[in-house]
């Protein structure tokens, strides 16, 4: 099953099924980005808009991109705010948004589905203005090493999505090659597990 089809099918239950990764990501996004000011934002892989609501409460203009039309439908129902423009976009292709314009680009639980980090980071760098921030929140590679990946349960059983493992060094080296400076790197744990981090987050600056 393609990643796009899997997310289209997942959209009906994405916000309601048990998902510790989704829930922790929302907490991480708010905690990290509350320290920064931003007016113009691109949200990569916005999904059902779980983080769009927070971003919209702080920004003046948001371009929210996702390749799943069903996820975008849910997001549009949830986030009724005229500062947000939802656009169906495959992130592995060109994003038709302005260069050197945005204060912030965010990407949550999306890069594990993209093999080449370099192409994404290069595009992000082009879209950000000087001093702009790039926030990443992803499943920690330590979790991936144990076999953890994006998946959900439906009537037909467990659906596992195609993913790629990106090591911490992969993120750092790809960002450095694109021209970014690292501002923050944090690891995030579940309340019931202090031995293995669930998420990793980065803030890079152009």
Give a description of the structure:
The longest helix is centred in the first third of the chain and has 14 residues. This protein is an alpha/beta fold. The protein is 31% helix and 28% strand. The protein contains seven helices and nine strands, in the order ααβαβαββαβαββαββ. A seven-stranded mixed sheet has the order 3-2-1-4-5-9-8, sandwiched between helices. Strands 6-7 form a two-stranded antiparallel sheet. The radius of gyration is 16 Å and the shape is globular.
Give the topology string: H per helix, E per strand: HHEHEHEEHEHEEHEE
Distance between the termini: 37 Å
- SS element count, helices: 7
What's the story with the biggest beta sheet? Answer: 7 strands, mixed
Question: What structural class do the secondary elements suggest?
Answer: alpha/beta
The strands making up the biggest β-sheet line up spatially as 3-2-1-4-5-9-8
Strand content: 25-35%
How many beta-strand runs?
9
- Principal-axes shape call: globular
Overall helicity:
25-40%
- Mind telling me the C-alpha Rg? 16 Å
- Which regions have little confidence, pLDDT < 50, spanning 5+ residues? none
Mean pLDDT: 87
